[in-house]
Amino acid sequence: MSEPFLYLTVPGLEHYPHVAYTWVVMALFVLLTIAIRVSMKLIPSSAWHNGVEAVVVGLVETMESNIGHGGKRFLPLLGTLAFFIFTANMIGLVPGCSSPTSNVNTNLAMALTVFVVYNLIGIQKQGLFTYLKHFMGPVWWLSWLILPIEIISHLARPITLSMRLFGNVKGEDLVVLILLFLVPLILPLFMMAFMVFTGLLQTVVFLLLTMSYLQGALVEEH
User: Fold this and answer.
1) What distance in Å separates the CA atoms of residue 199 and residue 104, rounded to the nearest whole number?
2) What mean pLDDT is predicted for residues 104-108?
3) What is the rounded distance in angstroms from the CA atom of residue 173 to the CA atom of residue 180?
4) Are 172 and 192 in contact (CB under 8 A)?
5) Helix/strand/coil (H, E, C) string of the chain?
6) Res. 81: pLDDT tops 70
7) Percent of the chain with pLDDT over 90
8) Three-state secondary structure along 125-182?
9) Beta-carbon count within 10 A of 217 CB
10) CA geometry: angle 144, 146, 151, nearest 5 deg
11) For residue 74, what are the contacts with CB-CB under 8 A and spacing of at least 6?
């Protein structure tokens, strides 16, 4: 997209637009939370209340089906990731703004949070020794081979999780910028509409992978 301008008003963040726009997204969440809290009703009457409730209910059902019974207790983590990633993706469509998720540092921070949480949850659920046994495979005499493979695959998860989101969002921003330069009227509109779909898709992919990591950390193999 075009060169971001909002972060220029924040001293010290001239070269870190992803940090400034991350704070913008968080400020939007605070305002949304206050608005929902003030107008909260047992039976929602407004369209946006029904929309937020539908998203939350759908997310809880998806968590229950992918993580298992009791998966809804991870709603604070997954709900925050869902709303943040989608909003961060969409804010790049605003002229003069930049998507925080188009910077790999933002995505890596979220991926590392997921990495730490699912490992801690696994250790808390099964105990340290039982959880570490999962890294050694089902056959003890192959543990010398399975252990390094499992460690490498787990350490690669934050990298792949963050780079996947970064590559898609950054690539779309560059395509729109090029189209705006070459064909400033029609084609960029179609691409921006497509970015809404892919922004939602990337949010879903990030959440489903997080759910699979949580499910794998909680499962007790016999």
Assistant:
1) 16
2) 92
3) 11
4) no
5) CCCCCHHHHCCCCCCCHHHHHHHHHHHHHHHHHHHHHHCCCCCCCCHHHHHHHHHHHHHHHHHHHHHCCCHHHHHHHHHHHHHHHHHHHHHHHCCCCCCHHHCHHHHHHHHHHHHHHHHHHHHHHHCHHHHHHHHHCCCHHHHHHHHHHHHHHHHHHHHHHHHHHHHHHHHHHHHHHHHHHHCCCCHHHHHHHHHHHHHHHHHHHHHHHHHHHHHHHHCCCC
6) yes
7) 27
8) HHCHHHHHHHHHCCCHHHHHHHHHHHHHHHHHHHHHHHHHHHHHHHHHHHHHHHHHHH
9) 20
10) 105
11) 63, 67, 214
Contact 21, 100 (CB under 8 A): yes
How far apart are alpha carbons 182 and 174 in whole angstroms? 12
CB of 219 closer than 8 Å to CB of 123? no
Query: Which residues lie closer than 8 Å to 157 by C-beta, 6 or more apart?
Result: 111, 115, 213
Mean pLDDT value across residues 101-111: 92
Q: What are 131-168's pLDDT values in tens digits?
A: 888 888 777 777 778 888 889 999 999 999 999 999 88
Rg, Å, the chain Cα set? 20
d(CA 93, CA 194) in angstroms, rounded, equals 11
Which position has the token pair 């008003």? 9
pLDDT attached to residue 192: 75
Residues in the chain: 222
